[in-house]
Specification:
The chain has 813 residues and is an alpha/beta fold. It has 33 helices and 25 strands. Bound molecules: ligand 26V. Ligand 26V binds next to helix 6. It is an enzyme of class 2 (transferase).
Amino acid sequence: MKLTIAEFKQDYIAQIKSSTARQINETTALERYTALGEMVKEYIGNLWANTNSTYRTEQVKQIYYFSMEFLTGKFMENNLNYLGIYEIVKDGLRSLDIDIDDILEVEVDQGLGNGGLGRLAAGFLDAMSSISIPGHGCGIRYKNGLFEQRIIDGYQVEFPDRWLVNNNVWEYKRNNKAVIVKYNGHVETHMDGERLKFELVNYDAVRAVPYDTPILGFENNTVNTLRLWSAEEIDDIFDFENFSKGNYLSAFEKKHSVEIITQILYPNDAYDEGKLLRLKQEYFFVSAGIQSIFNTYKKMNVGINRFAEFVAIHINDTHPALAIPELMRILLDEEEMTWEEAWKITTQCISYTNHTIMAEALEKWPLYMLRDLLPRITMIIEEIERRFTEDLINVYHITDPNHLSAMHIIYDGMVRMAHLSIIGSHSINGVAKLHTEILKNKELKVFYDIYPERFNNKTNGIMHRHWLLNANPGLTKLIGDTIGDGFKKNPRVLRDLLKYRDDKSFLDDLFEIKHQNKENLAKYIKDKQGIVVDPYAIFDMQAKRIHEYKRQHLNILHVMHLYRQLKENPNLDIPPRVFVFAGKSAPSYYVAKQIIKLINTVGSVINNDKSIKDKLKVVFLPNYGVSLASHMIPAADVSEQISTASKEASGTGNMKFMMNGAVTLATLDGANVEIMNEVGESNIILFGLKVEEVYDYYQNGHYNAYEIYNNSPDLKAVIDELVNGYLPVPKDEFIPIADRLLRFNDEFFILKDFESYRLAQERIAEIYRDKYQWSKMSLANIACSGAFSADYTIERYATSIWNVQKKLLDFKL
Ligand code: 26V
């Protein structure tokens, strides 16, 4: 947009006055931030209104991305950049004696997600807007986002994330768009002429109120909507009769029992607890979202039969899978369609992404629970199941009872949401090539056999503008000065950087930028953790949720091994290294929490040992989230992507590190395989078991962790250190970890992969000694990272799954 510094200052001073009733020099950083947010919102508002009215009047097909999680982080800097007014605002503020960084700093992260799945959803919204796809998000406005992690005495301790305490300047509450969601009760049937009608009676009603956040596209006038639903008591009043009788607390009980639905984000990212409240959450936003799509759709006036021509609904994992029976319910019970018509529309509208093969993360609901809470929805699921089984027998000629049981939606008293999602959609995609192959050939093979045309791959992508423009301004400037700014809209252009592989002065510049980022992070680490690290050391990072399959313990066991070597020989000639860890554990995941304690324990021993002359440091940075990642990733030399092959569906941190010039230390898992293909084998460090080997071991049962332990003295030494009193903790502290590795036979092959990991780390130390060789690898990673922009991923979803067209918008601000 066009804006001069003078206009900005005038607007801003007026805004400060109206929103704070104070002189500008008396305002706090928060007030300045809020006032700026209000202004930016007004600029965006014009574009937003234009976008919505164009979609409606020109009757364009729209895609609704349903996700239980949207991990959007901060908005201000992005919005300023995307409007093209960042520099103007920065200069304008400076002339008012305000540092823009102080304002950006006070914004709190919107952390309504656990990890990769939620961040991906946020990135997809950004990409849809930025490549002009008419697409919106639908989710839950949790009052508490993912918990704040603090480390106390080396342990993770959780604190609530009250991200709304200072209000959220970006959202609009839309009372007029509220809808009712119905739970419990029972279904009555009656004949209405020829038609059997179903009616839910004696239900509990909850008001779902939407809060809309504008999602701005990059310099293209498009503003899509993220609609998050909040639960309120139906009239938002308490039980007056009860209150007047003096029952003050119980008068508010109902209100609380309703509001609790959107109180908190479940902090598990790979373990399904099967809690009733979570089921309520899932139906809550799905029902509200689908109802509101109908309301919007009806304003287009094209007739209900053409619904699938104008609406695509994507379900992000199975959490929104109730969208399938909910859509059926509305088409059957409210629009009075036949089952066949309704089913056709439903399957044409819905598409589904699978994000994990981990059995413990696959959602299953007890049938009795579902029937109690959602009687009509359960009837519909049972009918879907009945017709599906009929097809299996009559159309696909499957009669073997074991084969049939493997495919049922309802089995053993449980409702399998992945099966419902596959049966009720026209597209099922994995999130990296390898993951999709595993789905097709192993985990979901029985479904692939009957629906081969439904399965497809959509490799994940990241918000490249965030990870470059916002997180790494130094690198962004170097890239822009060298190959121009085209990469902002078309990140494959980054490949042009490959021309500079042998340009020593360019490699020097690149090294210098990385070094500066490392200096900044070293300062942050000193300020926050009191640990001094050498910015000339190799910065080796593992930042992601803590999970046994991600193998943070493989990493720390290797650190323990390096430390042993240094203790034996303090003059050992190795480049200094800083191992940085960050990530949250699910609060109820005991072993993962012990891994955090282990990292911190090992850190406290190593960091306080003067005898090793600062050659090794271990840092655990608490409260990993989008903001911390944005500080860390630009400073990384090595990116640890070391999951047990087959377990990490894709990974997206791997792409962010790569884009910022880190060299990946990787197993051939998830998108690491594609990173290798982009960057070439000489620019990635590989190690470890391959997928087939992992599956072989699981199948033949020949894996023997004790055998490896007994035959590898170096490895045995570090495992023994977990339990022999070597570490300054009670002797039994780390027994659970040691048990998982030995007694329970090392499900994730830590022992098997240890030696190959150690050798890979040795190669890294060797290569790092040669500054130019290292910088060349780093450059190759940056140059080849463009393929992993979410812009391209969304392009592929739009053409091959959703069949939605770009809508270019013209508007002058
Ligand atoms: C499952 C459950 C089970 C019920 C309780 C709460 C909960 C929350 C999330 C999940 C889904 C876990 C799947 C997941 O997060 N997968 C990750 O998705 C990323 C984006 O596709 C991908 O990069 C990661 O490799 C994958 O682990």
